[in-house]
Amino acid sequence: MSGCERCLVYVWREECEPCEVVSKALAGMVGGDDPPAAIPLAVYGPDDATVLYRSYDVVGAPTVFSTVDGRVDTTITGPADESKLTAAFEAFGGA
Fold this sequence. Notes:
Layout (H helix, E strand, L loop, with lengths): L5 E6 L5 H14 L17 H9 L6 E6 L2 E7 L4 H11 L3
Antiparallel strand pairs: 1-2, 2-3
């Protein structure tokens, strides 16, 4: 994320019910005529949980966080509906 001035990252797991809630909310948000300015990013592998924890303090999924100049700005952990995510996007400046 250090190569991006601003990034939005979504961390999820397969077969995770709370992750499905967030996935559906994000899909509803980006499916409109004016999607938020976000960079899709997928991280998958056995070492990724450790990297995410050490670098961005991510302790579980689902987590949505934004970075500004490589530093974590906002974090939402756990199931989040579209209204909570919209508020985060607005704070981030992407909605």
